Amino acid sequence: MFSKNFLKKISSREKVSKTFLEKQLNLARIVIPANKCRDMSSPVAIGEGLKVKINTNIGLSTQKTNLNSEIKKMREAVRCGTHTVMDLSVSPNYRKLLKEILALSPVPVGTVPVYEVAIEAEKRRENFDKITFDDIYQALKRQAEAGVDFFTIHAGILKKSVQNLIKKKRVGGIVSRGGALLAHWMYINKKENPLYANFEVILELAKKYNITISLGDALRPGAIADSTDSHQIDELKVLGELVQRCRKNNVQVMVEGPGHIRLDEIPANMALEKKICHRAPFYILGPLTIDCAPGYDHIVSAVGGTVAAFYGADFLCVVTPAEHLRHPSLEDITNGVIASRIAAHSVDVLRFKDEWQKNLSISKFRARRDWRGMFNLAVDPKKAKRYRKDMSSADKICSMCGKFCSLKITEKCHFLK
Amino acid sequence: MFSKNFLKKISSREKVSKTFLEKQLNLARIVIPANKCRDMSSPVAIGEGLKVKINTNIGLSTQKTNLNSEIKKMREAVRCGTHTVMDLSVSPNYRKLLKEILALSPVPVGTVPVYEVAIEAEKRRENFDKITFDDIYQALKRQAEAGVDFFTIHAGILKKSVQNLIKKKRVGGIVSRGGALLAHWMYINKKENPLYANFEVILELAKKYNITISLGDALRPGAIADSTDSHQIDELKVLGELVQRCRKNNVQVMVEGPGHIRLDEIPANMALEKKICHRAPFYILGPLTIDCAPGYDHIVSAVGGTVAAFYGADFLCVVTPAEHLRHPSLEDITNGVIASRIAAHSVDVLRFKDEWQKNLSISKFRARRDWRGMFNLAVDPKKAKRYRKDMSSADKICSMCGKFCSLKITEKCHFLK
Q: Nearest residue on chain B to A128, judged by CA atoms?
């Protein structure tokens, strides 16, 4: 599937042996999203035994349609350390943006191709409920040819899931856009989910372009009151079946997960996915541990993401402070990506020598009040420098403690390693 | 120690029975910091079986000496939901600020009285190493009379701790200001810690004014490389002994804790304190799980604080984005307090019906896109409203998904509870 040189590059970036990488790849416990038609400077592997990875969503909305803003966000997300980006545009000019992102992004690019189908239907002033699998296939094919590296496919929500949702209602309903479109389609047409019904056709295409399938969780809880409910678990079981079908067809696959999870249910959620989905890489959104912090959901997500990564999540989708409120600004992207990096790093530092070493170095610079050294290793040097702007980098104190700096006071006591 | 009416007020605020509150108080597993000389509108109980509490540090530094800014910060911290404030001023005009804070704060006020001793020595152009216990006692007495509700007393760092630190060096050394002053005093004078040597005298004073002793952890690690090291544990053992001495003298006591803890060592740290310190309330700073996020340490602290609270921490000290960089701004205080509230709420929601109910309500408003309902229950209504400023509260969508809002798409599908 991949050249020896390519795998060597990945294993050196990941600080794991090539043998380990190949073993995990063969067992399908890791994926390397990389469309055959696209080259990128910073490919990435995601899954068990590797560092925790981060994805950042960008994209135009029906209200916010400025292409340059989204390209800037992609660049900022990369500066802040995202490993992949997803273009989730739902605006008529989506095609132009995706083309630019695919040309400019150094990291893998993912999409939810059903959005394209929805926008095109909207353009034709047609209801999404009128679309056919052929419409979906055209979008998949066009995006595959354009070079998209991974597709979110919401094939786990079934006709019976929709009936179940009506029988056993939820606090948060459906909070997946792709899931909602398909649920409504099934609600109206009383037919099976076209993505599920035609899954083999999708796999053929994915195989041809080496596109990684990211199995979307249309039924992820949108409120912690719905955390780990039967709808979520029923869908997870379908996703487990689809994982096996992907593997049988030599298609790389990962599984998407919540969303909103009670703090005490995060470990079980990670274990369940690994069990039911045969240790496929787990790609989660958040998770959020509470619902009452709009404006600060990046922090809630760092909390949930850390615990989730510790218990086995492989890939964290960035949640920005704008979540639940608005289309994110450039600053929201910065804050969101850094929050996710904190989650990933809190776990990586326990598992990877180079991460531990880097963290140790910044501590040593801190103990010696070497500001330049600290800035170089900081998760966001720009913000750290900005916060020091009223002090010179030669000052051996900060404005917090001033001359009562504990490190300055004990400077001559020989306490430091 | 407390009137029946006062305990009734506390038990109703805490949503626990008066019997439970009294039992915990008798077992000294909770404290209610409230100086006999001071009245306050929002007293609070801290400890086992109660909601997780939050403290915010304010105070003048040698570089930042504006009184009004600090009063504004106190008010903002209270608006954001802090349960106590500590005035940690180390500036010559500290006395005026403390007087104002004690007059204006609706919540308990704590201090580190040794700072006053250090500032007064500085005013006399005298070295801190020249001070005697009598100087310390004068400061304690003045602050007790002024109405301070809890004192941080760094009595756990001993003469031998200083020798141990020189023998077995650390990456982060000492990061406690009070601890550093006392360590240097012992390093120079080769005598025992005056706070430890005269602990009974301090207890007499504390008892007289009903001041809660918060046993400071002078040897808390200042880098995760030092997490759970022998210096930290040795001091914890001394604090455990001091807890018993406080209890024998009918003085309320809590124990302060790290600081910086590896994520995987947080559960053990909580269990150790509860064991070694005889289930005294645990008051922690952070903890931070990584060292490389200056500018975002409030997020790191929310991560560590959540896990710590889940495993038994009772009281979280706010860490602001300015930590390790500068004296915090008003905005830093907002972000810090909210981050700690997220940590506390992530745990409280699992343990207290009213917190669960509140969280459930906001989810229901969200599913119905009732913005006003959401704002009223948000952890920071001000920021949530600001983020919605380009949309009217009547709009049933946000600028993220626009017309492709999953909740709008499935509005008529009868999925919602």
A: B409
